[in-house]
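Shipment paperwork, digital attachment
Item: protein structure file
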Amino acid sequence: MRIAVTGSSGLLGSALTGSLTADGHEVVRLVRRAPAHPGEVRWDPHAGTVDTAGLEGCEAVVHLAGAGIGDRRWTDSRKRELRDSRVLGTGAIARAVASLATPPRVLLCGNAIGFYGETGDAYVDEDSPAGEGFLAELCQEWEAAADPARAAGIRTVHARTGLVVAKGGAWARLFPLFKAGLGGRLGNGRQYWSFIALHDEIAAMRYALDTETLAGPVNLTAPEPLTNRQITAEMGRLLHRPTVAQVPAPVLRLVIGEFATDIVGSQRVRPKRLLESGFAFAFPEFEQAVRAALGAE
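Attachment content:
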C-alpha cells in the first residue's frame, strides 16, 4: 500500500514509517524543503500548499506534523506557532486530499487527549465533551480543520494520543531524572496520566488505518490510566531509584508557565472505540510499557 506521512522525522512519524516500511508498504514523506530523495513530496503548511501530484495513488495519508507542545514556554507568539502548525497544516492536507481525482480511502490526523481538558477523577472517552483552556481549544480547531476531507467522503480519524512512554519524545526527559534519583511527583500527584506504550501507539495507528468502522476521534491510551503518584512510584521501583522529590505546582508554573496547568491537570481517559472494535494492547500495564521502552534499541 502507498501511504503518505507528514511529520515523518518525529518520534511517532519515524516509528510509524519504520513499521510500515518493514512490512513492505511504500511510504511517501511530505517535507518542507526541496525533495532530496525519492519518495519525498514538498508541502508548506503555513502557505497551505501541497504538491498533490506526489499524493496520487496513496491509499492512506497520515498527518502527524506540528510544533512540540512542551518544547518551549507558552508565550503569545509560541501559542500562535502551536496553533498554526496544526490548524493550517491540517487544513492544507485536508484540502489537498479532497482535491485528488482518486482520493485516499482514509486520512489519519494526530491529535491529543488535551481535547478533554481537566477531567479530575472522572473517566472520559470519545463521547465526552471538549474541555476548556488553550490546549483543549487548540485540539478542537485542529480536528475541525480536517472538515474538507470529511466533506469529500474520506474516512477521517483523529488519533487523540496520551503520554507516549518511549526513549524519545517528552518521556525521554523523565528517564534521566529518575535514573539520577531526582524523580518525584509533580504537584500533589493525584492527577491522572493517561499513557500508552510506543509500540501500542504505532499498532493502534495502523489498526485505525485498516479498520473501516473507525472514524472520528479515537483515543490512543492504555486501558487504565494511573495517577502521577502511582507512575512516580513505579518509575522508581523499576529503575531502582528513590522518588522522594516533589515539584510543587507553583514552582512548575514559575518555571514553565501556562503549560504547567496541563501537567498538574488530571485526564482519566479510556480508549473506548479501540477496545470496542477489538484492538488488543501488547503493553496495557504501565510496568510493561516502561520495560518495553527500556528494552528498545
